[in-house]
Design a protein that fits this description.
By secondary structure, the protein is an all-alpha fold. Helix content is about 60%, strand content about 0%. It folds into 3 domains: about 210 residues, no CATH class; about 140 residues, no CATH class; about 40 residues, no CATH class. Helix 10 packs antiparallel against helix 11. The termini are far apart.
């Protein structure tokens, strides 16, 4: 008799990931990520008129470039200006100065600033996965910074206004929980750079503390807390105003703050041409803002009434961030141009503009749209799932204002022509040590050393 002895089944051993396979997979991902940023950079850059792309904005020339040249690319990074740190703009200034001739510094600053906004959009798409699972809704969040209606008017394409986009990035950095060490370090650096470029990120300190104690997520919250602490130290040591500000410039009427939030934060989402909005207000009064206000209020109320507590809190925080960003910016920068409650007909037609302070509130208000879609999807109990239609509709709405009606830099002065004129002045007069290169708006300029212009 033959006894058959069955062999034990062979154990399946998982193939270890070899170094080439790991590097190939991550190489493909990085290539795709880089490609997305490059494509989106040029999509955003094309939103700017040709003259605007080559015109420097205010601090980009008179502060960041001047101190990059005088102090050096690295030493200028921690240098305070107007009471605050501006790390990201100074880093971009150093890169632009070192990778291109001075004649193309203006174009390079515009291009690099658009690249940072593109990177923020891609980062929001990945980071928002911590809160929003369906990728079409994360795509809705990702298109907000780049296709913001008021973006090209003043804040897109220059480093001095990148802090508004960094504000929108801040909460997503705090919500994401990385698993790999390199990702944790990257988020810490990103949060630190964000907070040391915009002091208003302090409004997200409650979210950072919640992430640390409730979710045990330390990296990005620690970076933001450290950055805000550094900003507070700097602003206490080097105050924004060296001398007391006159009383009439220290405050703004609360009703004007409210009007401004409605007009700038909400109204600019509907129509980015300030002349159209001003004419409508003169013709119809407050009724000109009824439709956009009702839309925003309706979406917010829908989430607060029908959404789960997670979405109620998210919507309330987004709306609160919009209000806080607008109020903080207007109170700190109070000026007669914001006294909307006292505007006459001539004021509306001659003094009303969309300002850079509308950017952050508008982005946080747009966040309500994908959150509302999540509530709809949950209430439908599987009958409706977010698809490409949701981001397509949002993109179509934003593309109405893709090309701006006007920009603050559309009439120049173009940077390369200014450099040529300054160089010619240095050549014609050997006694000159520096020549002015002008930026927008009028009154801002950089005293370019003749030794730098002439390559001596």
């Amino acid at each position: 008799m033959t006894i058959q002895i069955d062999r034990p089944p062979a154990r399946r051993v998982a193939k270890p990931r070899t170094a080439p396979t790991f590097l190939l997979r991550h190489g493909v991902r990085m290539a795709a990520l880089g490609g997305a940023i490059v494509v989106l950079t040029f999509v955003l850059w094309l939103r700017l008129p040709e003259v605007t792309r080559g015109t420097l904005w205010a601090e980009d020339a008179a502060v960041f470039l001047r101190e990059t040249v005088s102090l050096g690319s690295f030493r200028s990074i921690p240098e305070p200006y107007s009471g605050y740190l501006h790390v990201v703009p100074r880093v971009i200034s150093g890169v632009a100065y070192n990778v291109a001739p001075i004649d193309y510094y203006g174009t390079m600053m515009s291009l690099l600033s658009c690249m940072v906004v593109a990177g923020i959009s891609v980062a929001v798409f990945f980071l928002s996965r911590a809160l929003v699972q369906p990728w079409p809704l994360r795509l809705m969040l990702a298109i907000i910074p780049g296709f913001l209606p008021v973006g090209p008017l003043e804040v897109l394409g220059n480093a001095a206004n990148l802090h508004w986009f960094l504000l929108f990035l801040s909460p997503w950095l705090l919500l994401y929980e990385p698993s790999r060490l390199y990702a944790k370090a990257l988020l810490l650096v990103a949060a630190l750079a964000t907070a040391t470029s915009e002091i208003i990120t302090g409004l997200f300190l409650p979210l950072a503390i919640w992430a640390i104690f409730w979710r045990k997520n330390f990296w990005a919250p620690a970076g933001l807390i450290l950055g805000v602490a550094l900003q507070l130290l700097v602003t206490s040591a080097v105050p924004r105003y060296g001398t007391p500000v006159p009383q009439q410039e220290e405050s703004i009427e609360p009703l004007s703050v409210l009007y401004g939030f409605v007009l700038q934060g909400i109204g600019s989402l509907w129509e980015s041409d300030h002349r159209t909005v001003a004419s409508a207000i003169v013709a119809f009064g407050g009724f000109a803002m009824v439709i956009p206000v009702l839309l925003v209020a309706g979406v917010l109320c829908y989430i607060l009434i029908f959404g789960r507590w997670r979405w109620k809190i998210t919507a309330a925080y987004a709306f609160g961030a919009a209000v806080a960003c607008w109020t903080a910016a207007i109170v700190v920068n109070a000026q007669p141009a914001f006294e909307y409650a006292d505007f006459t007909v001539d004021d509306w037609l001659g003094r009303f503009y969309f300002f850079r302070y509308a950017a952050a509130p508008s982005m946080f208000l747009l966040t309500l749209a994908p959150i509302a879609c999540l509530v709809v999807a949950e209430r439908s109990k599987g009958r409706w799932k977010p698809g490409l239609a949701a981001p397509a509709l949002m993109l179509a709405f934003l593309l109405i204002n893709y090309l701006p009606p006007t920009t603050t830099r559309q009439v120049g002065p173009t940077w390369n022509m200014g450099v040529d004129a300054a160089r010619a002045a240095c050549v014609s007069d050997n006694t000159l040590s520096a020549a002015s290169v002008h930026a927008a708006p009028a009154g801002w300029h950089w005293e370019a050393p003749c030794t730098l212009l002439l390559g001596r």
